[in-house]
């Protein structure tokens, strides 16, 4: 996953413009931010790569703040990627908050960073639900 996030960050470094009119996202791009964010959420949670994701996000945030001081804004591609990462971070927070008190998953994922895998949740809770309904 390291090369993937490194490539994303390198791509992101080229997504700045001085023209304000180029820093708007068209409507179709806004509609795709949701599916993109869900993809990153699944990638981060199932792959257990939150540390890599959060470091990439903070590097992107630092770059945005640095470039803003130079008078540069994100173009539509950069806005899309940055907004996808922000929504992904919110989705991860909601996921962790929802499963915070799950005793079984807490035992499976001990430690300071608690981010359960979606597949573990499915096999633990949803699979049992399907088995009960088929009886």
TrEMBL record:
Nucleotide-binding among the record's keywords?
A: no
Q: Which InterPro entries match?
A: CLN6
Query: What transmembrane ranges does the database entry give?
Result: 39-66, 78-100
Q: Name one Pfam family in it.
A: CLN6
Provide the alphabetized UniProt keywords.
Membrane, Signal, Transmembrane, Transmembrane helix
Q: Name one GO cellular component term.
A: endoplasmic reticulum
Please provide the Gene Ontology terms (biological process) for this protein: lysosome organization
Name the domain of life this protein comes from: Eukaryota
Q: Which residues constitute the signal peptide according to the record?
A: 1-20
In terms of PANTHER family, this protein maps to: CEROID-LIPOFUSCINOSIS NEURONAL PROTEIN 6 (PTHR16244:SF2)
**What name does the UniProt record give this protein?**
CLN6 protein
What organism does the UniProt record list as the source? Toxostoma redivivum
Q: What is the lineage of its organism?
A: Eukaryota, Metazoa, Chordata, Craniata, Vertebrata
Q: Which gene encodes it?
A: Cln6
